[in-house]
């Protein structure tokens, strides 16, 4: 939704950190794979060079507050997609938040938004399932 504001390099780096988030807990669930595939479509980034990805994520490309918050909102939605906010996923979030210079209040607000987002998506899925023949 707000990812359209990213430039090409930010899109690529977000995909890399999203992948790191997805594999952080050591278990890649189907729901996480689905989210990553949807993110690729949304970002219009369908693959990242393995060599580039192996260098790690470059968070410095998120050079303004808006892009940092948007990235964190997307990352929290990925972390919570399986309703299991694993300690390793939390570490990725904290690392990114620190590098972005976000306050504790901003991090709490992002996490709260992520939990609300998860609940709303779950409600929408339940509504769709209830109305399906």
Give the tally of structural domains: 1
Number of helices: 6
Q: How is the CATH topology named?
A: TerB-like
- The percent range for strand residues is under 5%
User: What would you report as the Rg, rounded to the nearest angstrom?
Assistant: 15 Å
Helix content: 55-70%
Structural class: mainly alpha
- Supply the CATH class: Mainly Alpha
The coarse silhouette is: globular
Overall description:
This protein is mainly alpha-helical and 133 residues long. The chain has a single domain, classed as Orthogonal Bundle (TerB-like). It is 69% helix and 0% strand. The longest helix has 28 residues, at 104-131. The chain is globular. The two termini are 29 Å apart. The model has no long low-confidence stretch (mean pLDDT 85).
Outline of the structure:
This protein has 133 residues and is mainly α. Helices cover 69% and strands 0% of the residues. It has a single domain, classed as TerB-like (Orthogonal Bundle), CATH 1.10.3680.
